[in-house]
Design brief:
The complex is a heterodimer of chains A (498) and B (326). Chain A is α/β, with parallel strands linked by helices and 498 residues long. Helices cover 35% and strands 26% of the residues of chain A. Chain A folds into 2 domains: 234 residues, P-loop containing nucleotide triphosphate hydrolases (Rossmann fold), CATH 3.40.50; 238 residues, Rossmann fold (3-Layer(aba) Sandwich), CATH 3.40.50. Chain B has a single domain, classed as ABC transporter involved in vitamin B12 uptake, BtuC, CATH 1.10.3470. The chains are: A alpha/beta (498), B mainly alpha (326).
């Protein structure tokens, strides 16, 4: 069968560094083709070239055997539709309006709201997602936004659909739903290019896999003829054990954090205790209220009821604001590192300096030598690569950026650290290192709270797992005895999407 | 343990536009001064050059101070117009009656009130800085007119203020020294203090700055306070210069200061820039208008030239920002 879309010998360099180096990929109708690789391997650049957003230095993109021009419009017209990794919906517009933006034909420049809604509803029905088309995007969960994003891409009636890490923020149930949807679309003849870090998904869904490493194509295979271990080895270029059983021996000490009767929007009367040296995991579906809960306990957002206490060196202090939380050694690694975590155009050194400035400069006068020395130590400790503290944070990949966010809090050992989705969108190598750091912190006596939608991660890290649903803790599992089924049983309750 | 591959440095990929936005002002200032010295009659005299600095000083002092508000990502403080005039009127009117010490205290009180009103509205109530300071400009100017009765105040011709206004250290007028001193002090505050750090950091990412343990409202009030105190000192210098004060004496200072800041290469989007750049921007704009005057080019053309210059600087800033995002 002939290929629907074909990339031939694509090369693209950024300032002398080849991001994509002589890569060819072809996908047939009805085929789901996985493109995998670590962060910085060139996947996203290749996809941006396919969708005409980026221009290759050499090589061609062909659709149905015909070469297409290098422009976003030419790609869309030829039938290539990209679902962005970073959501590109307009939050203040409705579902219907957003889908309309994606591909509804305009008539004489006027919008017909009735037609628009009908079109949006049909598109959503086609992919089997039930959501109120008049609801604003900003009021939808991350998962539903992802589905609307896909609906928008499908609305253009593409021949080729490209998805870049579509499950990064989805729970297992939502992921399963998405995979089933993609399987259906492929059966109807759509060619799908699927970029993911998540190896099990690739093996559930895809027919073929292409692996990129350092911009080069290193491996192509039918899924049937390869193994997850082989794919991971090819991705990282060396042997790497699937290390899910590297749990540590926890020796929990005294209670450090105690939160009683917390209420906030989306949080319904939650109690929580975390002990020194203990890692507590918060499992549950996206939208269950976990982020709202942790932000309420550390004072990053307001709570409507409840009390929070931190005990440091035998002294119990009430937390009434984010500032008082920080004074008591609370550290927060937020879910959205680009928005809440990092000043992207500032250096690594400056980013690390921010929360430590009162300690590093008691009189308010900066000592650049001291600041640089501390930044260097922290960069080494978290394994930042390359460890150039003068570089802007935004120039690093997702995994390295997350290491910088964690490094911010390591100068003074925190009494209590909260990590919200600490490895979302992070490559395999960085993920292992971040897990190592989290365990190291707990071993040193910090009370650790991890929110994660990544089940293997939750199971690997947690000594205790609380599962949250509808803003309440629905059950508590011992980390050693928990498994994916038990967590999901508590988390799911009822299905998010029909 | 897995080792992630080294990420390639992207230094080479920084484009011409970004280089231009960052370093253009240094090159342009040097070229302009050199060209003026060679081609423009009367430019390269000591008298002319001290005159340029003398005239540039009040606006320059406002501009280096206002750089703090711009870097914090809050566009500008329009109310410097009212603040400069207020400080000048207070300096002469109050000192005539009660002496310099009382005048300085009263002016500082006024500056602090401006900073707190602007800063609280912008920092805590998240109001738009342009609208807030537009309103405080009119309230402030109106109040000043009411209290001063719209009259012109004259200082005693042999008073300390008048002597300062005419004073020189060697060939350099005191006003220029004040500008340089303010630049040095504010550069230190911006680059080497925790307060200055949070101003810059707030301009890049407000939420990350807050989560890094910062009372961001106080940071914004601080940025407005630096601007207000600078405007006050500019008012003193201006009053000393002419030994008179009137409520309309600083018309146009808001946009002229902003022009110098932008031409210096400080980003109107916040986060990027420096006090030294603003000083260069002030020098560039002042030298340019001096050259146009010496060449007998009409005031209308001068205004158009300044407008075109700002548009160019903003365009370069916006292009650099877009290039940086890729």
């Amino acid at each position: 069968m002939a290929a629907v879309v074909e990339a031939k010998n694509i090369t693209k360099a950024f300032g002398g560094v080849k991001a994509v180096d002589d890569v060819s990929v072809s996908v047939e109708a009805g085929e789901i083709h996985a493109v995998v690789g670590e962060n910085g391997a060139g996947k996203s650049t290749l996809m941006r070239i396919l969708s005409g957003i980026e221009f290759p230095d050499s090589g061609q993109v062909l659709v149905d055997g015909k070469e297409i021009d290098n422009s976003a419009k030419a790609s869309i017209d030829a039938g290539i539709s990209l679902v962005h990794q970073e959501l590109s919906l307009v939050p203040e517009m409705t579902v219907a309006e957003n889908i309309y933006l994606g591909g509804f034909p305009t008539t004489a420049g006027f919008t017909n709201r009735k037609e628009m809604k009908k079109f949006a509803q049909e598109t959503l029905d086609e992919i089997g997602v039930s959501v109120d088309i008049d609801e604003r995007i900003s009021r939808l969960s991350v998962a539903l936004r992802q589905f609307v994003e896909i609906a928008r891409a499908i609305a253009r009636k593409p021949k080729v659909l490209i998805l870049d890490e579509p499950t990064a923020s989805l729970t297992p149930a939502e992921t399963d739903y998405l995979l089933a949807m993609l399987g259906r679309l492929a059966k109807q003849g759509l060619a799908i290019i699927y970029i993911s870090h998540r190896i099990p998904e690739v093996f559930t869904l895809c027919h073929n896999v292409t692996i990129l490493r350092d911009g080069k194509l290193v491996y192509v295979s039918e899924i049937k003829k390869t193994t997850p271990q082989e794919v991971i080895n090819q991705m990282v270029g060396r042997e790497l054990k699937l290390d899910l059983e590297s749990r540590r021996d926890a020796k929990p000490g005294d209670v450090v954090l105690s939160a009683v009767g917390i209420k906030a929007p989306g949080v319904n009367n939650v109690d929580l205790e975390v002990r020194a040296g203990e890692i507590v995991g918060l499992g549950g579906l996206v939208g269950a209220g976990r982020t709202e809960f942790i932000r309420a306990i550390i004072g990053a957002d307001n709570k409507t009821a409840g009390n929070v206490y931190i005990t440091v060196d035998g002294k119990k202090n009430q937390i009434t604001s984010y500032m008082s939380a920080m004074r008591n050694g609370v550290a927060y690694v937020p879910e959205e590192r680009r928005v809440d975590g990092l000043a992207m155009t500032m250096s690594v050194s400056d980013n690390v300096y921010l929360p430590n400035r009162k300690d590093l400069a008691g009189n308010g006068i900066i000592n650049p030598g001291k600041a640089a020395k501390v930044a260097k130590e922290l960069a080494d400790r978290v394994g930042l690569r390359p460890p150039e503290i003068k570089r802007e944070a935004g120039q690093y990949s997702g995994g390295n950026q997350q290491k910088i966010v964690i490094a911010k809090w390591l100068h003074q050992r925190p009494s209590f650290i909260v990590l919200d989705e600490p490895t979302r969108g992070v490559d395999v190598g960085a993920k292992a290192e971040i897990h190592r750091l989290v365990k190291e912190l707990a071993d040193l006596g910090t009370a650790v709270l991890v929110v994660s939608s990544d089940l293997p991660e939750l199971l690997e890290l947690s000594d205790v797992i609380h599962v949250v649903r509808d803003g309440k803790i629905m059950g508590t599992l011992d980390g050693a005895e928990a498994d994916e089924k038990k967590v999901m049983g508590l988390a799911a309750g009822e299905s998010l999407v029909k | 343990m897995a080792q992630a591959p080294e990420e390639k440095p992207e230094k080479n990929s920084r484009g011409t536009i970004e280089w231009f936005a960052e370093n253009g002002i240094f090159v342009f200032t040097a070229v302009l001064i050199l060209a003026a010295a060679i081609f423009v009659n009367g430019f390269a005299s000591l008298q002319n050059i001290t005159d340029v600095f003398h005239r540039a000083a009040p606006i320059g002092i406002v501009a280096v101070g206002m750089t703090f508000v711009v870097i914090s990502g809050n566009y500008l403080d329009l109310s410097v117009v009212a603040q400069v005039a207020t400080a000048a009127v207070i300096m002469i009117a109050v000192s005539n009656e009660y002496g310099y010490f009382a005048a300085v205290l009263a002016a500082m009180l006024a500056a602090i009130i401006y900073a707190v009103v602007n800063g609280v509205a912008v920092g805590y109530f998240k109001a738009n800085a342009v609208i807030v300071t537009l309103s405080t400009t009119y309230i402030g100017l109106g109040l000043l007119r009411l209290l001063s009765g719209g009259s012109i105040f004259f200082g005693p011709p042999d008073g300390a203020l008048a002597q300062f206004g005419a004073g020189k250290l060697g060939p350099i007028p005191y006003s220029a020294l004040v500008l340089v001193l303010m630049t040095v002090i504010l550069a230190f505050v911006l680059n080497r203090t925790n307060f200055g750090f949070t101003v810059r950091s707030f301009g890049v990412n407000e939420r990350a700055t807050r989560l890094g343990g910062t009372n961001t409202g106080l940071v914004i009030i601080g940025a407005f306070l630096v601007t207000s105190l600078s405007a006050m000192i500019a008012g003193f210098v201006l009053a000393a210069f002419s030994n008179t004060a009137v409520s309309a004496m600083s018309t146009g200072y808001d946009f002229q200061a902003l022009a110098a800041i932008i031409v210096g290469g400080t980003s109107v989007f916040g986060g990027k820039g420096s006090v030294l750049r603003t000083l260069l921007g002030v020098i560039f704009v002042s030298v340019l208008s001096n050259v146009l005057v010496l060449l007998n080019i009409g005031f209308g053309y001068q205004q158009m030239a300044l407008g075109a210059l700002i548009a160019l600087a903003v365009a370069v800033d916006a292009l650099a920002r877009r290039a940086g995002k890729k």
